[in-house]
Amino acid sequence: MTGHENASVRSANRKFFARIIPLLMLMLIINQIDRSNIGFIKHQLELDVGISTAAFGFGAGLFFIGYALFEVPSNILLDKLGARTWLTRIMITWGVVVFATGFIQTPTQFYIARFLLGIAEAGFFPGLLFYFRKWVPNVYRGRATALILSSSAAAYLLSGPITGGLLEMHDFLGIPGWKWVLFIEGAISVLVGFFAIGWLVSSPESAKWLTSEEKIALNSALAEESTSRDRASHQVSKWKLLFEGQMAYLCFLFFTMCMTGYTLVFWQPQIIARIEGLSPFEVGLLTSVPWLCAIIAINILGRLADRFHHRRELMLSIALVVTAIGTFLCATGSPIFGLLALCIICVGSKSSAVLFWPIPQANLPSSIVAPGIALINSLGNLGGFFAPTVFGYLELKTGSTMGGLMGLSAFSVFAAITLLFVKTRPKPVAMEKSPNV
């Protein structure tokens, strides 16, 4: 790539970062809030709908069953129909399901609503990662991924105060607070989804705000990367690539990360609520603290991951160990000490994601990138079903979260050890010196 072409690619990506990524970040923030808000309304659902702790864990996890079943088909359709059409469809339909959840009256209806929410959301996050393959060269992708994952952490930072504040609307117009949470947050999703229809651009060719020179240079850079990635695998069938050992190992790693991540999301408000004398709004504020720590950490790591991309496996192993330490401490300390432990878990968990996702983004062949990222995300997200379900059962039987937290800590340590012996990436594509966006 010549210096002139490199300048055009840099200019095109600056425009993409300025115009498109903020909207993607907003969409993901809303996505994560809508997915995790049941952690804040657990007690109200128990009182009004009769959902026990075990039933709550099972229902929270059912989301991931629907998600896993429809993840790969959803990403294939995104590849065919484009991000503008498919990402906005996903957002509008999940908003409708969240709104409708406000009308549930039985545990069975809760199960159905969570399963349908998983179907509606399927393909959204891997769709964002695949969208980057259409726009962002590998040299910028760590930073782009870090920004997206920052918004995921920001969602949990904002979710506490927002959902806690909406719960304070209890009995306004005779409507319980948990219903206000679902009605308002679901409606916002639908409105932002309709706005995104007119703002997103599926590919560089459709972007009116890029010059012809920028479009040509960006497409050339992306095509060059694609050719380098595919050269070693052009004689191997798509299905063999999709189900070979490296893919299985990536699914295992992400499964382990999701077990801790989603147990944290669903049970964090309950862990913090053990601190005596807190109102729902104050609990919400305190849940923001760990996610603020995570945002700071992952934005630093985003640039480090691009600069030291050959060390990603080692860095990911360290992040998993940090997650394990935080989980262990959360199981052994006082409620106040638990808040510090939650900060460590959040930093480790979100840092792991920043270091993990550039690996499949950069190295999966073009023939399987859409279904491949979706497969990793869908099978990995089953950890979000397995861990909360077991966690809820153990708490019901033992009256404590210690056993579940210790198990999660052990899983993270095991995954960290395997990273020292298993190669997750082929030889990296030769790139020019990383420019600054």
Topology:
Blueprint lengths: L2 H17 L1 H16 L5 H8 L3 H29 L1 H19 L5 H15 L2 H12 L2 H30 L9 H21 L14 H19 L7 H5 L2 H28 L7 H28 L4 H21 L2 H22 L1 H6 L5 H13 L1 H16 L3 H18 L18
Helix pairs in contact: 1-10, 2-8, 2-9, 4-5, 4-6, 4-7, 4-17, 4-18, 5-6, 5-7, 5-9, 7-17, 8-13, 8-15, 12-15, 12-17, 12-18, 12-19, 13-15, 14-15, 14-19, 18-19
Walkthrough of the structure:
The chain has helices spanning 3-19, 21-36, 42-49, 53-81, 83-101, 107-121, 124-135, 138-167, 177-197, 212-230, 238-242, 245-272, 280-307, 312-332, 335-356, 358-363, 369-381, 383-398, 402-419. The longest helix is centred in the middle third of the chain and has 30 residues, at 138-167. The radius of gyration is 21 Å and the shape is globular. The protein has a single domain (3-230, 238-419), classed as MFS general substrate transporter like domains (Growth Hormone, Chain: A, Up-down Bundle), CATH 1.20.1250.20. Helix 2 (21-36) crosses helix 8 (138-167) and helix 12 runs antiparallel to helix 19. It is mainly alpha-helical and 437 residues long.
Mean pLDDT reading? 80
The tally of beta strands, per DSSP, is 0
Low-confidence sequence ranges: 232-237, 426-437
CATH architecture: Up-down Bundle
CATH homology group:
MFS general substrate transporter like domains
Q: Name the shape in a single word.
A: globular
CATH fold annotation: Growth Hormone, Chain: A
> How many helices?
19
Count of all domains? 1
Distance between the termini: 17 Å
Strand content: under 5%
CATH top level class name: Mainly Alpha
Strand-pairing-aware structural class: mainly alpha
Largest sheet: number of strands, sense, barrel closure: none
The topology string of helices and strands comes to HHHHHHHHHHHHHHHHHHH
